[in-house]
Amino acid sequence: LDRYNKLKDLGEAFNAKLSLDEIYELTIDKAYGIIGKTDEAKLFLVTEDARDLVFHSCKSKQITASPSKKSDIFDKWVFNKRQPLQISDITCDFRFDYKQNKEKPQFNSLIAVPLIIQRRIIGILRLDSKEKNAYAADDLRLLDFISDLSSAAINNARLYIKTEELAITDSLTGLYVHRYFKERLTEEFNLCRNEKSKLSILMLDIDHFKDYNDKYGHAAGDKVLKGITDIMRGNTAETDILARYGGEEFVVLFPGEGKGKAKSIAENI
Question: Which of 35, 125, 142, 166 is 20 to 30 A distant from 2 in Cα terms?
């Protein structure tokens, strides 16, 4: 009962997190701590193409131990089936030939659950024990609850990040919007003044863009704007700050750069 009471506190803890890394850390830490009986807890995340698993983090009893960062047949089973898995003894489970693992297993029993958002698997949470029959069915249910709480928190964090990105970037070009650029300009100007460093700014617009837009249509105009954006990105550094200032107006801020460098980049563009 005490372990299930901890789920309430865990839910509140997840709700207080908006950083994905903090949520991942909390997930593995609490799964390891609440369920117990565990020698090693692992978190795998699904790759962007949704075809494979990549190791994210681990918590182990042995601090000096080096965890295996490769997914094995058990992880892949959970990934493909999208179902929880409990194994009491890996040498006796008819579903798996544990000898397929290239590395000799350092565990004898495990429980693992998928992390799922809107029917899409995003990761796997797994606990291993060197003891046989270490986990009961109730442990698997508890891990599944933790997975549900974590998945909901991850989804909220991703939505928050997306909302933040949409609020500061132009939907067509992906460049910063006018409002956000003005905030960054103020920050960089104050930094430049305090540190007595250089700061340059470049403004440009597209000649006859309205005529082109009227003649060929907005879809063609959008392609021009995206093309100009690609050219700007190809001629600037990651530290430079690019923004769409208006309809066909663009601006670039060069922190730490003088007039000569800005003029050279302007000519290249």
Answer: 125
Neighbouring residues of 113: CB distance < 8 A, sequence distance ≥ 6 = 78, 84, 85, 124, 125, 126, 140, 143, 144, 146, 147
Q: Tell me, what DSSP letter sits at residue 201?
A: E
Q: What phi and psi values does residue 125 have, to the nearest 5 degrees?
A: -110, 130
Domains of the chain, each with CATH number or no CATH? 2-166 (3.30.450.40), 178-268 (3.30.70.270)
**pLDDT for the residue numbered 65:** 58
Handedness of CA 72, 77, 83, 86 (dihedral sign): negative
* Mean pLDDT on 116-136: 95
| Residues tagged active-site | 248
Query: Is the pLDDT assigned to residue 63 strictly greater than 60?
Result: no
Question: What is the arrangement of strands in the sheet containing 241-244, beginning at the earlier edge strand?
Answer: 199-205, 249-255, 241-244
Helix (H, G, I), strand (E, B) or coil at 190: helix
